[in-house]
Hints:
The protein has 308 residues and is an all-alpha fold. The two termini are 34 Å apart. The chain has a two-stranded antiparallel ribbon with strand order 1-2. The chain has a domain at 100-294: MetI-like (MetI-like fold, Orthogonal Bundle), CATH 1.10.3720. Helix 2 crosses helix 3 (89-125) and helix 4 (127-142) runs antiparallel to helix 8 (183-196). Helices cover 68% and strands 1% of the residues.
Amino acid sequence: MIIAKDGTLRERSPSQWTLVWxxxxxxxxxxxxxxxxxxxxxxxxxxxxLMPFSxxxxxxxxxxxxxxxxxxxxxxxxPGGTDILGRDEFSRLLAGSEVSLTVGLxxxxxxxxxxxxxxxxAGYYRGWTEEVIMRITDMFLxxxxxxxxxxxxxxxxxxxxxxxxxxxxxxxxxxxxxxxxWAGLCRLVTANTKQIYNLDYVNAARVLxxxxxxxxxxxxxxxxxxxxxxxxxxSIAGGILSEAGLTFLGLGSPTTIxxxxxxxxxxxxxxxxxxLALLPGFAIFFVVLAFNLLGDALRDxxxxxxxx
Length: 308
């Protein structure tokens, strides 16, 4: 409650984020997708507690009398069955969630930092700064992403530079996805920055002597945060899918457990034991779907006009 000039009590106008939350919670699909994303994230953190067996252990291989062995069908003791080496598939599915979500999250953080920084600089300073950044952006957008990602990962993992080959596989994929995934966001941030560059509150800050850095960080970026959040959420799904695709194509490390690697290893027994590929495949599908639905819901909540 606030006191008006006439002395009467009036309700305080809700903030922008309060209105966003009200719109968001009215959307049942949005609430469901957020619940799924939170649940998957918690699962990726606490999975060591939930695993019935070691994801790399071959103890089930010698437990044929109780449903184990090599390529055992799903049963009560081994709900996901076992793979070719007798490893518990359910435990590997839980362990793979950590790598997949880590790659999706950190590759998105990297691409957002690059895209937002370059986009804000291009939109604010304009002139030759914008020209140079936009031409670099166009070059990255013109590159065939999958081909470049395959070449980059192959060069780092199998090249002649020994120190590069020592970098963990998940970090390699994070770097590659982050470096080649920022261009679209950069163009979006540039357009939004140019749109509000001459608004009154920005001009007022400029007249009061605010530095360029302060204007960008305090007055411009917070007001274009909505599309950045939406793009970042959807980019996490893209990162998970890209990681799965690269590891499925054989660019992952056999010692690193990820959903794409599990699908890759199941290729040889796909006709006889399709569940070995279906379990990680469905995991990828549901996680990517959850993040995409979350991104769409955030878009509708942050800017209801986009719903139409």
